[in-house]
Write a sequence for this structure.
């Protein structure tokens, strides 16, 4: 099958797909908490089928351990589509990017440095804060004794420093007193064996913004408001994310003035952190309605109907196939001058035709669906 996805001389590019499949780890004896960030078979099958439908060949590689074995065995790919989160350590999302860089293989999404930096929420907030962007005041509690030195204004919000998918976030995360702070921090330190991020709690509305593109061509694809139903403190917790069909409403957001502020904040954070291809930026407003950066996900979920990024794309009139195609285009245009280490070694990845990650006119709202 020939298309502009092909390599030199009309050759179709071979794309490796690297991921963490939830069921693989459950079969090895890991618990549900351990695999909360990993993907379902439905997500991987959707990605594989979509990339293939765009004119590429697809090789389902699997997780970082399988990737390591296959690289050591001499296998190569023209481009790797990487959504692997990694299993342990605060640099776990950097393992695949670092390995691919060592072998000179281009890949989608942010590089190893950005993936490590953004997983540590405090480091990410420092970069964003130093760029002059709003983010809640915060401190890091590394041991129980540190709680006595926290000088932030109550109420506070506490969560693990380097987790995703709302892990460690529940009704107790909103804290009103030093005694509550000590109790919650001790629990999180013991449960997750990592520092705790403590922030001043923002009582306003919550949003997530999707960004596509690289450098000056990056833009905000759309913004979605997250409304937790029947939660007195509006906490987007792990439970809310897991049971989002019943507990959460996802609303397309296009209010002019606030949209512009969120757009500027999200894009500013994306550039300050040097994200690539696509990311999702989480934003929450303070009591005066001013948006603040909360965190960024450089490896956003890609389930066609249950992940926030594809949901935002759909609400803006971009199909799942177009979204994945735009990500591939962004990655290929970014790496077109780099040679691969695969079967087409020595052949530059070509530039694709048309605009990178083209902007979309905002389309019709999508029905409320679960996200992740």
């Amino acid at each position: 099958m020939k298309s502009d996805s092909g390599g030199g001389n009309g050759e179709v590019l071979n794309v490796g797909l690297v991921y963490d499949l939830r069921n693989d780890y459950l079969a090895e004896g890991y618990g549900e908490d351990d695999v909360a960030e990993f993907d379902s078979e439905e997500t991987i099958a959707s990605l594989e089928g979509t990339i293939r439908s765009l004119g590429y060949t697809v090789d389902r590689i699997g997780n970082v351990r399988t990737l390591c074995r296959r690289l050591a065995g001499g296998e190569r790919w023209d481009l790797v589509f990487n959504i692997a989160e990694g299993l342990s350590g605060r640099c776990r999302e950097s393992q695949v990017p670092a390995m691919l860089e060592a072998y000179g293989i281009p890949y989608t999404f942010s590089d190893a440095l950005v993936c490590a930096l953004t997983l540590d929420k405090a480091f990410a907030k420092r970069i964003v804060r130093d760029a002059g962007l709003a983010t809640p005041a915060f401190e890091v509690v590394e041991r129980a004794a540190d709680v006595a030195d926290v000088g932030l204004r109550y109420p506070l919000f506490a969560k693990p420093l380097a987790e995703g998918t709302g892990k460690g976030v529940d009704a107790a995360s909103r804290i009103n007193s030093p005694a509550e702070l000590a109790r919650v921090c001790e629990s999180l330190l013991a449960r997750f064996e990592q520092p705790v991020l403590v922030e001043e709690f923002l009582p306003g509305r919550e949003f997530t913004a999707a960004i596509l593109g690289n450098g000056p061509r990056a833009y905000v694809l759309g913004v979605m408001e997250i409304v937790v139903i029947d939660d007195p403190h509006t906490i987007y917790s792990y439970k809310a994310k897991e049971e989002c069909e019943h507990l959460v409403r996802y609303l397309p957001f296009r209010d002019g003035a606030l949209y512009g502020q969120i757009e500027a904040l999200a894009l500013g954070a994306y550039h300050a952190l040097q994200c690539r291809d696509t990311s999702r930026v989480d934003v929450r407003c303070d009591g005066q309605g001013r948006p603040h950066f909360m965190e960024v996900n450089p490896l956003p979920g890609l389930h066609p109907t249950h992940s926030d990024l594809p949901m935002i794309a759909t609400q803006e009139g971009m199909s799942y196939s177009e979204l994945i195609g735009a990500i591939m285009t962004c990655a290929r245009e970014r790496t077109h001058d780099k040679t691969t280490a695969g079967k087409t070694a020595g052949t530059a990845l070509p530039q694709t035709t048309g605009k990178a990650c083209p902007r979309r006119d905002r389309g019709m709202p999508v029905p409320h669906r679960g996200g992740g």
